[in-house]
Amino acid sequence: MTAPARPIEAPQARVAPWRPAFLRSVPLRLSVLFICFLWTLPTLGLLVTSVRDPKNITTSGWWTALLHPFEANQWTLSNYQTVISSDGMGDAFINSLIVTIPSVAIPITIAAFAAYAFAWIPFRGRGILFTIVVALLVVPIQMSLIPILQIYAAGNLYGSFLGIWLAHTGFGLPLAIFLLYNFISQLPRDLFESAAIDGATHLQTFIRLVLPLSIPALGAIAIFQFLWVWNDLLVALVFLGPGAEVRVLPTALYNLIGSRGGSWHLLTAGAFITMVVPLLVFLLLQRAFVRGILAGSVKS
Amino acid sequence: MAVVARTESPGLSRFVLPIAGLIGLGLCVGGLLVLLDPQGGANLLASIYDALGNTAGATDLRNGSGDQVIAKLLLAVIALAVGVGGIWLLFIGVGSLVSLLQAKWRDRILPWVFAGPALALLAVFLVYPAAGTVLRSFQNDLGQFTLANFAVMIEPEFTQILRNNVIWLIVGTGASVVLGLIFAGLFDRIRRESLAKTIVFLPLAISLVGASVIWGFVYAWQPAGQPQIGLLNAIVVAFGGEPIPWLQTSPINIICEIVILVWLQTGFAMVVFSASIKGVSGEVIEAARLDGASERQLFVRVIVPMIRGSIVTVATTIAIITLKIFDIVYVTTGGRFNDDVVANRMFQEIFQFFEEGRASALATLLFVAVLPVMYINLRNFRRQQAQG
Amino acid sequence: MAKRLWTTSVLAVVVMMLVVACGASSTSPSPAASAAASVPAASAAASVPAASAAASAAASAKPAAAVPKVPTGYVELDKALGADKPFNGKTVSIQTQWIGGEGTNFAASVADFATATGIKIQIDSIGSSHEVVLKTRIDGGKPPDLAMLAQPTPILAYAAAGKVQDVAKLMDPKKLSDEHPATIGLVTQGAQIWGVPYKADVKSTIWYPIKAFEAKGYKVPATWDELIALSDKIVADGTNPWCVSAGGPGAATGWQLTDWVEEVVLKTKGLAYYNDWISHKVTFQDPGIKDAFAKVGKILFTDKYVFGGNTAIVATDQKTPMDPMFTDDLANPKCWMQKIPTWYGPDFFPDQRASGQPSKYIIGTDVGMFPFPTIDPAQNNAEGSADTLMVLVDRPEVRAVAQFLATPEGVQNWIRAGSAISTNSTTPADWYAGAYKLKVAAEIANKAAGIGFDASDLMPGKVGAGTFWTQTVQWVNSGGTNTDAVLKAIDDSWPPTQ
After folding, report:
1. Could you check whether the bond before residue A174 is cis, i.e. omega within 30 degrees of 0?
2. ipTM field
């Protein structure tokens, strides 16, 4: 019997077969509200502080500002203005983007392949190797900095963007592999069995089957790696160097704030500004979550 | 027999992919050469400008001024092309090459093609330093073998440090995992799920510096009689109490610091659990419902066991984070108030006391402490492979 | 949909910010003088081209360039200042901890020299990650050419590891030693000198509100007994005399407490004893040290002496303890005295902290400093500290910069800003005139029988940056009840002598 050649298809999206029972009970709804309120409280404090007149910050609690919201002279956007217009902030922003985006894309690619191998390609030593990869999560960064810098110094990688992309890739791989493995290994086995029956190679299975199904996982890891690299200060200082042309956003903000510590009004405004981009990325990737999630469990 | 789409005549076309891969690889090497030069972006852009006739712009670039931003962006684009595209080409090219081999060789080599780049990078960036650290912990400053560095563990404060790390481990991991589960389950069932998830996730987007500022405003202390600027003390005073210096009072300060971690990490746990929960097969749930399970029983008895793998993953990750917790303690109290932890002590040994040997001994201790976690993961891994 | 609207509006906000940021940065293409600056030819203070420190012929508005006159006594420095500018275009990198106001002042200090010689001085201001980044760069093989450190101990540690250049080989060692008599000993080992002392600080100062003192008829105390009497009087009048912070937050907690103890030791037992204490010939459990702790305890723990009690000491961070002094614009201080070095004001006055604009409180009129009172009249010693320059790479232009920083002109613009004291003893005294802070500091230094360097900066790191800090914090936290245990703990932690 010669059926016509049938390429492997990604499974079709299917509406979730069960609807979660929407919370009818009021106590549970209230608890959700309460949780969200509690969780946001500290961030709310940050937001309020960032728009307050600096003189008031150390003299009264931030919630008092909320109690008298219409006293106009206590609110100000000048903190944000100071931060945004300070020297080199725009360059730092761009440098941060340049450092972060490849530092997210590259490790995810490499980790996806490796996770698939650990999950679905049986080979000798797989268990031990995987456990070692997970164990590498514990290596403290401070211990890696000096040996790697020695290698970079010898290899002329110091101060180059390539160096920092590689470094962030190396440091971010254990978690990325671990999390991706977690998702990929939970895909239904019959999926792979039928693909094997169809004569698909591992490569084809990976590209056409596993990757589309792993989009939520890939999105999640993209977020975490993005956050880690975007907010990183130390690795950038060490491998890129302190020079002004390669300074990233956290360093620039930190320099703004002063050596013996907090101008809280600038710190809070700065924290919010740094937060905007990762938040955007999260929101945009949220849609990937939703779409991928609808694919749910799949019929092969 | 259904087969993968292949043209009728094998032979040449089987080599298309590998050859394309190799060409791509060549391009990547070129890109790499540009990337390796610290001035690569500027030089490349300068060459482009020269070709376009904009010699003034080219000279500017070579001098370090001019369109540096565009040069940097060019560099980033090349990096993405090489890093992502190149890696893809590499995988596909080599993968296809290997697929051409006999089954026996193919099955032996292919896993290493897939996992090879990752393992190579890990070996350089993490294994090499870790091995060096362990070695260093057995050496004194002159390079001779010694066990003296491990004496750091019998010093009197060390019992307290260990105790603190254990508290972090148990409370921090436990709270984050449990809360993450609860939130993932709860939010699954409300309409504004995205919003709720974003709110719980938001703290992760705030850098650690920002987080310590925020929580500074929660735990701040002012003498009695002065207006309180810390939220907790404002509440305490409003109820008629005396303000408490939260971060300076042991042992409650450890819990206060753990709260910061939980605030941050629960978002992580929730995101992972949420995605896993969505992947639970609908039929199983329908069946349980038909059997008369209540929603709570459904969650606890059916869903949770099914996402056991994710729970182990998340718990492992957060456990390891608590083992090496540093930033929160360093910024809030510096470990001064009976709340010191191993990583903070390690930091001091290297950068303030200039005692690398002792710091390495502490790091080796961390590596040993993670062995039980590794063991659990290995068992989990083996079990997963067995059942599939 | 709502979600799409929200995403779009957030995107719009981000785009706007990007535009503003790019707009802002494109109008200032070269990094300006705040925070890390690579200082090219032009900078605010340096618009007067100067090959030597000749007074400018123009009106008195422009001060003379802060550049030493040739011949300076240093070989490469003379070459650099020569008319042919042999080092023109070369770059020298220097890493410091100074950001914010201090960073600006340091940049100004080297700006004139950079103009005069054409050397591009790249200042890497790192802030509180300074030690971490420095150690990593040095051990990793990519050190900066020069580095500034606030303590000599790390310099000696790096020297022991062979990472530091011997300054005695890079410039005239006799001239260097003669001009830095008080500080060169800290970085000298036999014939080898490992650093160039740069900027000094006097620590034996107590800040107070001048006008408020006059209004209440308080007199500046000159002796310990007068200090205690004044404190009692202030308590009787209803407020707290002392604003004290341990120096936090975080890992910095504790340094001010060590300063208190060191001050008292210097003023009760003298310089020889003090130096023996640093080298551990005198242990912490010695009666003299215990007595010093008791005296400090009298200030810190007597009921109502400290604003907020001993909890405030550990819970207040180092920027804010003096804020209660400024109540009602200094008319009704809630605490009256803070022992802290000269660099504190005006940068940390509450209004300048909040607005970033110069404080409206004038130092010398509204707020001032008096010397820490004598305890034993025979032991009128003062405590000081210094920042020292470390040379990590040897090149002719690096030598020139290091030599420049060894001259009084190396700190001149900082002195002009009223905020620094040079470690160079040939610095003309009239440079300090007119700046209140520097006058007070200079007087203290001149009147002192001897100057003791900050002890915790000289003790082995494990104690000086470790147990001495952490144990005194514990001591304060317990209200001073566990003195013996604390002293014993510090002694026990002293590393075995190598």
Report:
1. no
2. 0.84
- The first and second tokens of residue C343, run together, are 């660099």
Question: Which site among C26, C99, C340 would you substitute to test the A interface, given the most A Cβ atoms closer than 10 Å to its Cβ?
Answer: C99
What distance separates the 2 farthest-apart alpha carbons in chain C? 82
Domains of chain B: 13-137 (no CATH), 151-387 (1.10.3720.10)
Q: Indicate whether C313 and C378 sit together in one domain.
A: yes
Q: Which domain holds residue C139?
A: 68-201+385-441
Compute CA distances B213 → B80, B134, B240, C249, whole Å.
35, 36, 26, 11
Chain C contacts of A234, Cβ < 8 Å? 129, 132-133
Q: Quick one: what percent of chain B has pLDDT higher than 70?
A: 93
Contact A135, A203 (CB under 8 A): no
Residues C246 and C102 in one domain: no
Compute the distance between CA of residue A122 and CA of residue A125 in angstroms, rounded to an integer. Answer: 9
Q: Is the peptide bond before B305 cis (omega within 30 degrees of 0)?
A: no
Tokens 């977020």, residue located? A223
C347 and C479 fall within a common domain: yes
Contact C376, C268 (CB under 8 A): yes
- Which CATH number do you get for residue A181? 1.10.3720.10
Could C129 and A263 be called an inter-chain contact, meaning their C-beta atoms sit closer than 8 Å?
Answer: no
Q: Please name the residue of chain A whose CA is at the shortest distance from the CA of residue B72.
A: A98
Torsion-angle region of B37 (φ positive above 0: left; ψ -120 to 50: alpha; else: beta): beta
Total domain count, chain C:
2
Residues B213 and B235: their CA atoms lie apart, in Å, by 19
Residue with tokens 């605030």: B263
Structure-model confidence comparison of residues B96 and C284, the more confident one: C284
pTM of the model: 0.84
Which residues 6+ apart lie within 8 Å of B95 measured at CB?
A: A201, A202, A203, B110, B113, B114
Cβ-nearest to B352 among C307, C465, C492: C465
Centre a 10 Å sphere on the Cβ of residue A278 and count the other Cβ atoms it contains: 22
Domain tally for chain A? 1
Residue C42 to residues A134, B33, C120, C202, C218, Cα–Cα distance (Å): 53, 36, 11, 32, 49
Same-domain status, C77 and C190 = yes
Q: Final residue of a domain: which of C441, C460, C484?
A: C441
Structure tokens at C43: 């900078």
pLDDT, one tens digit per residue, over C133-169 is 999 999 988 899 999 998 888 999 999 999 999 999 9
pLDDT at B294 exceeding the cut of 60: yes
Half-sphere exposure at residue C337, Cβ-oriented, CA atoms within 13 angstroms: 27
Do C187 and C229 reside in the same domain of the chain?
no
DSSP bridge partners of C248 = C317
CA quadruple B31, B36, B41, B43: dihedral, nearest 10: -100
Percent of chain A scoring above 70 in pLDDT? 84
CATH of the domain at C162: 3.40.190.10
Identity of the amino acid at B236: V
Extract the tokens encoding B195. Answer: 């919003």
Distances (CA, A) of C453 to A145, A151, B71, B237, C384: 33, 39, 50, 44, 5
Whether chain A has a CB inside 8 Å of the CB on B244: the answer is: no
User: How does pLDDT run across A73-131, given as a tens digit for each residue?
Assistant: 778 888 888 888 877 788 888 889 889 998 999 999 999 999 999 988 888 888 889 99
A89-120 helix and B68-80 helix, angle to the nearest 10 degrees: 0
CA torsion sign, B269 to B275 to B281 to B284?
positive
Distance between CA A131 and CA A102 in Å, rounded?
27
A45 lies in some domain: no
Report whether A259 contacts C103 (CB < 8 A): yes
Residue of A nearest to C348 (CA): A260
The whole-chain average pLDDT of chain A stands at 79
Please, which chains are in contact with C (at least 3 CB pairs closer than 8 A)?
A, B
- Cα–Cα distance for residue pair A138/A141, rounded to 1 Å: 9
